[in-house]
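hey can u check if this looks right to u? its 285 residues, i copy pasted from the old doc so theres a chance i mangled smth
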Amino acid sequence: MKEFNMPDDPSPIESPNGRVFLECRVAGTSYHHVDDMLDTIFVGRKVHLMRDRDNKHDENAVAVSLNDPSLLEPEVLDFSDILGYVPREDNAALASMMDMGWERAFDAYISKINPKSEYEKLRITITIKSKEDTLREEKEESKGLFRAMSMSPGQWGALEMDLYEEGMVYYRWCCLPTFDHDLPEKGERIIFFCQEDDGSYRLYLMMVLAVDEECYPFVKGKHEIIMKDDCCPFVLTNIKGPVSVSEEVMDEILKGKAETFGGGPEQRLAKAATLRIKEILGIDD
């Protein structure tokens, strides 16, 4: 096998959205059996950085993986299925920034492959995006995540009655002070769920049709919309449901945190949970 180097033509590493933060070898590739993965690795391939905070050998350990950690919950990150680690001599600043919550500020790509080398089989280039680009990307990605709201049996009955009689539901959710709340915007999707007596769950996937004054055409009692209180009116319609989901599957999605989704749809499901819900509902967008 020959050595592979970064091509001269523009590549993802030269992205205008970031500049080079670190270029280094990947340590421990032999231990992690990278030879068995070389057929799937190429120069320019994106890799993912994962902070290994429980590493007993290096408090600043940062793993390099082909798998996207955002698809997993933090408690189930698998550090056995990685390419290796950012070397100990290069990882302190990177680990500190990741610990401050800036994991998403970094992109990483394979920049060199030397199959014959045991010490430096792979090299990666890590780029850092601007704060503005990072925050914008986080905001855009969060829009694709489903919000979720847990309902009591009584609330669930009222929801289904409204859908049957009106074809939509109307809520007034607390929105003041605004800095204390993160309520949905028009077009966002919300999973409403309720646990049945047998432990299983029923789900509706709803979409926000209108917010605030835009609710007028949908609501019969228009005086409700102009009520002077700390709540904002929302009108939603059903996209999919009701769907029954087993207790085991729903616990896998909610990670035992169903109670955090009560009161209003201010919490979003994680990326992996959103994808799992889409799979259950047969939705691919």
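The radius of gyration is 24 Å.
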